[in-house]
Structure of site-specific DNA-methyltransferase (adenine-specific):
Amino acid sequence: MKGHVPTPDDLADHIVEKLFRENPPAAGETILYPGCGKGPFIAAVERYCNTNGHPIPEGVAIELDPEHLTAARERHADLPVEFQERDFLGDVADLGEFEYIVGNPPYVPIEGLDEDEKQRYKQQFNTAIGRFDLYILFFEQSLNLLAEDGRLSFITPEKFEYVDTGSELRKRLASRHIEEIEHVAEDAFGELLTYPAITTIENTSPGETHIRLRDGTERTVDLPDDGDSWAPIIRGGVPEMNTGATLDDVTTRVSCGVATGADSLFVQDREAVPPQLIENGWTYPTTSGRQLQQNDGPDSGQLLICPYDEHGNLPPEDELGEYGDWAEIHRDRLEDRSCVEKGKVWYSMHENPPLDDILQPKILTKDVTAEPQFWADREGEVVPRHSVYYIIPKDHVELDELRAYLNSEQAQVWIEAHAQKAHNDYYRMQSKVLKQLPVPKDLGQSHQATLPGLD
């Protein structure tokens, strides 16, 4: 099985302790090790049972990689475990049910699957929606094999708690008792940053869930069972903000900045840009997310050399003028880009910038940040790059008023409760999340007044 990540022994011990907590194994009970790899959980179960004087449950270990399976079989030949070389995401109805299931499912995003795999999984699994990951399917398959009153402990990325792709899984998990979710250290697997969470399920009626966060915070919560994101509740709740309007209602665009495909060429310090390009309108002020934060605003001192007109149209080659002269000098580098290989014109950028929208007064924010922060481009002259999100208010919405709200504690708490996590526990800004941000009452009233059919 692709996506295998070895589980350190101390982490496997920690997970197994949760699995057997309050319900240690008894004689005749069974345990399943899906995607067992080389058997770190088999060893952890043996250590737990020997230390605490409990019988080792009869196990079935499933692994598709023959080398890993051989290693596991050799290491644990003296234990009551049946080793099977098979695809856990295939037909496993013959396995029966298990009192315990434990593991570290493979992390494989949809991009790592071929078309046949994608179609097969979508037909077989209810949780295979959107840009699903294999670990989500492992959850569903395992829940189907969990006996009544049985217990399951998995370590997976925490993303299933809040991404749209995890909505169906959240419904299925919430139909049981999610006993605990613990967010463990982001470097629990060494240099592989996965933001892991240990989820412990008891196959009984739903009940309260104990939450343990990386900063040591603990709380007991009732998780929603309708598929909505769990992030606001897990992270501590959000202020009541039922205004009836969202950021999407009071803006014309919330988008990621421009991807040039070659920033080292298209972006240069103002002093390094040929004067004729500046004089004849082939450049715009620009900023990256890092510069936005370093400079406390969009004035970076750099320019974007841009072949597009003010409407985002790419002129034909014989109308490029000074830009064409500059581009010809760098033609080899411009042609040596993946976007050109895929059919883009050699002197174009990776994507056509929607300059009609971008060249307006707007609000800017860094795409990955320790805390949400927003700046203004009041003149509408800056073309933000791909590491910046830009927000265009509607005509009736005052830019500085909206920016002040976005920088308020109320908005920041909401965004931090809903945003996806990135490295170092930073927050990842995304259009679909920002658009859902409730706006304050006065902006909401302005929105209502502009709706068709209202005076």
Summary: The two ends are 61 Å apart (CA to CA). DSSP finds 18 helices and 20 strands in the chain. The first strand starts at residue 30 and ends at 34.
